[in-house]
Automatic annotation (TrEMBL):
Residues 6-229 form the ABC transporter domain. Pfam families: ABC_tran (PF00005). It comes from Clostridium gelidum. This is Lantibiotic ABC transporter ATP-binding protein. InterPro entries: AAA+_ATPase, ABC_Gallidermin_ATP-bd, ABC_transporter-like_ATP-bd, P-loop_NTPase.
Amino acid sequence: MNEIILETKSLCKTFKKQEAVKDISIKVPRNSIYGLLGANGAGKSTFLKMITGMLRQTSGEILFDGHKWNRKDLSEIGSLIESAPLYENLTANENLKVRTTVLGLPNSRIEEVLNIVDLKGTGKKRAGEFSMGMKQRLGIAIALLNNPKLLILDEPTNGLDPFGIQELRELIRSFPKEGITVILSSHMLSEVEQIADHIGIMSNGILGYQGELKKGQDLEKLFMEIAEKYRREE
């Protein structure tokens, strides 16, 4: 089995004359939590949107599970990018039912994912009445419906209170044991430090560093060095 579930080779994305992602070569180990760090505007979301098929790369290559990425691979990739795609007038169960119908998945999967994200007891409460943390967990439940090998979460703790962050952190930590690799993008160093096995640091559209997150590593110092280096090269 290939120990790298996702790899990109010299991946680039240009909007008109602006390079948003520049020559990124990344390797994400299977059954790990890969923290993709970068300030707002570093190019993280653009990069992740290419992996999830929302954007087409200008150049470069994406390899998934040992082969060249194609749109069929989206059946094995789950994602929550930006805000959770919810119908606020529907319950959690009804939101998931819409997706299982479209994806042709069994209804039994609804109860399974609600149990995973601890939303089984929400009953007739509509998604619009959910707290921000509950909405994020429902968004993750939607991303888990197709039982993905790779789960991509873009700034999932944005707007959450400390309790919501703690709950989400524990949930994300559980995924590798279930055979799900996670890419977690964030600009919050402390959050990634507590949850990730491997990290990549982006600045100005460039992946300036990647490697295993070592115990006792000064992540803030490393982040600032990379951010400053590539900011100067604009």
